[in-house]
Design goal:
Blueprint: H1 29-54, E1 57-67, E2 70-81, E3 87-91, H2 106-137, H3 142-150, E4 154-158, E5 163-169, E6 177-183, E7 188-197, E8 204-213, E9 219-228, E10 233-244
Antiparallel strand pairs: 1-2, 1-10, 2-3, 4-5, 5-6, 6-7, 7-8, 8-9, 9-10
Helix pairs in contact: 1-3
C-alpha cells in the first residue's frame, strides 16, 4: 500500500474573518476602491489572528490518498500547537503493513518489484512537489496578498446575496488564481480555491478548502481536497473532533 501522508504535514488552513466585508451596491468607483482596501486589510489581519485562536485547540486529522479513484492509504494524526507555536502531529495508530506481492518467478519478481518501486518514488516526488507548492498558497500569506494588491491583481466581487469573493490572479505564478469566498453577514469564511501548476500549466494542481466554525466562532478547515490530475491522484484531508488542547 502506498503511503504519501508524510508529505502532508502542515496541510492545515485555519482562517477567521474578523470584520464585515459587505459590498455596497451602487457605490461610486472611489468608494468601491476604498471598500475593497478595507476588506483586504481585514482579510490580512484575520490570517494572523486565526492561528493564535487555534493554538487553544487540538484535533484529529484524517488523510486519505487515492490513485485513479482507488484508496491507497489512510492515516490519522493528533494535531496541536507546541509552546513555541509550531504545529505538531502525532500518529493515532500505525497503518497495517501490506502483504508482500507474490510472483511467478524469482527473476521476474525482482524486475517487477524494481519497476513498482521506481514508479512509487516518482509519484512520491511528484506529490511532495505538489504539496510544497500548495503550502505556498495556503494559508494565504499576508505579504503575498499585499504584493498582489500593489500589482493590481486583487479584486473583490459580490456573489449571491450576502457572499463575496476575493480574487487574486498571477498571485505567485503567471496565470495562477486564488478565490476566497466569504459570508459577509455572518463574518464566516466559506472556502478557498486555488488553480496553479508545477513546472508548466499542464502540470495542473488544484486545491479546494471547505470551512466549519467552532462554538466560539473560530473558523477551521473541515475538509481539504488536493487534485493532481496529471497523475490521477487525489488527497482528502479532514479535520474533526476539535477540543481544548491538553496542557
Amino acid at each position: 500500500m502506498m503511503s504519501f501522508t508524510g508529505s502532508f504535514r502542515g496541510l492545515c488552513v485555519c482562517l477567521t474573518l474578523t470584520a464585515p466585508l459587505a459590498v455596497r451596491a451602487g457605490a461610486a468607483p472611489g468608494q468601491d476602491a476604498a471598500a475593497a482596501q478595507e476588506r483586504i486589510a481585514a482579510l490580512k489581519q484575520s490570517l494572523q489572528d486565526s492561528q493564535k485562536r487555534l493554538r487553544q485547540y487540538e484535533w484529529t486529522e484524517t488523510t486519505v490518498v487515492s490513485l485513479k479513484g482507488e484508496e491507497k492509504s489512510r492515516k490519522q494524526q493528533r494535531c496541536y500547537y507546541s509552546a513555541d507555536g509550531k504545529l505538531q502531529k502525532q500518529p493515532v495508530a500505525a497503518p497495517a503493513a501490506a502483504a508482500p506481492a507474490q510472483s511467478g518467478g524469482r527473476g521476474r519478481g525482482r524486475v517487477k518489484k524494481a519497476v513498482v518501486e521506481n514508479k512509487k518514488e516518482e509519484l512520491q516526488d511528484y506529490m511532495e512537489r505538489a504539496v510544497a507548492l500548495v503550502h505556498r498558497y495556503v494559508p494565504p500569506n499576508p505579504d503575498d496578498i499585499e504584493n498582489a494588491k500593489k500589482a493590481g491583481h486583487v479584486a473583490v466581487r459580490p456573489l449571491q446575496a450576502g457572499q463575496i469573493r476575493v480574487e487574486l490572479t498571477t498571485y505567485l505564478k503567471p496565470g495562477d488564481a486564488m478565490g476566497i469566498d466569504l459570508d459577509a453577514a455572518a463574518n464566516r469564511l466559506l472556502g478557498v480555491n486555488v488553480a496553479s501548476y508545477l513546472d508548466a500549466p499542464e502540470d495542473a494542481v488544484t486545491l479546494a478548502v471547505q470551512f466549519g466554525a467552532l462554538n466560539d466562532g473560530t473558523s477551521y478547515t473541515a475538509q481539504t481536497t488536493l487534485d493532481a490530475k496529471a497523475k490521477n491522484v487525489r488527497v482528502v484531508v479532514q479535520n474533526s473532533d476539535y477540543r481544548p488542547a491538553a496542557r
